[in-house]
Task: inverse folding
């Protein structure tokens, strides 16, 4: 298990992937999806039209978990322009074993998270959530085939609901490449 954890921590370094110029138009946009919030309510992602959106796969027992604080600070500083959406996942090292209620309590108590958090999802594999299938399937999003390689990978969506960037776990909201992507 330690080998798996270490592989996850070092596998993706600071990987960033940007949508190439003149890519094939996406067959879908973010606005085509409905997801469940942590409290079980259906959320139509079209409610984020006109805003940039950052999608994070999160975990409560990961070396990157302190990023919750970084992303909360970013969310507070950019409210109205950029949305941060958290999707807990237990895909990497079993680092998100809790229920939705436990996840919500953990995020609030330890990091004061106010950005929207959603029900736990699979980000890869046979049970992959439809949103993550779109984010990581070139034929659906127009260019990207990167699935999360560990917890706290980021996808950037533009104001039209199109995927524009993928960032690995180590990239934080103050990283130059991320700041460039959200200009």
Result:
């Amino acid at each position: 298990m330690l080998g798996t954890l270490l592989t996850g921590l070092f596998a993706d370094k600071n990987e960033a992937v940007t949508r190439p110029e003149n890519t094939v138009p996406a067959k879908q946009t973010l606005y085509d999806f409905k997801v469940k919030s942590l409290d079980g309510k259906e959320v139509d992602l079209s409610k984020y039209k006109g805003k940039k959106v950052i999608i994070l796969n999160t975990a409560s027992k990961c070396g990157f978990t302190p990023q919750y604080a970084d992303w909360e600070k970013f969310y507070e500083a950019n409210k109205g322009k950029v949305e941060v959406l958290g999707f807990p996942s237990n895909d990497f090292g079993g680092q998100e074993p809790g229920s939705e209620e436990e996840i919500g309590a953990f995020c609030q108590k330890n990091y004061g998270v106010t950005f929207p958090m959603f029900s736990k999802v699979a980000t890869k594999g046979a049970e992959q959530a439809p949103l993550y299938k779109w984010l990581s399937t070139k034929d659906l999003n127009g260019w990207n085939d990167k699935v999360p390689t560990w917890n706290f990978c980021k996808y950037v969506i533009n104001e039209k609901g199109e995927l524009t960037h993928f960032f690995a776990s180590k990239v934080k909201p103050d990283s130059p490449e991320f700041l460039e992507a959200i200009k």
User: Anything to note?
Assistant: The chain is about 25% helix and 15% strand. The helical segments are 2-11, 67-78, 100-111, 130-135, 138-141, 176-181. Residues 85 and 116 are 5 Å apart (CA to CA). The beta strands are 16-18, 34-36, 42-44, 52-58, 82-88, 154-157, 163-167.
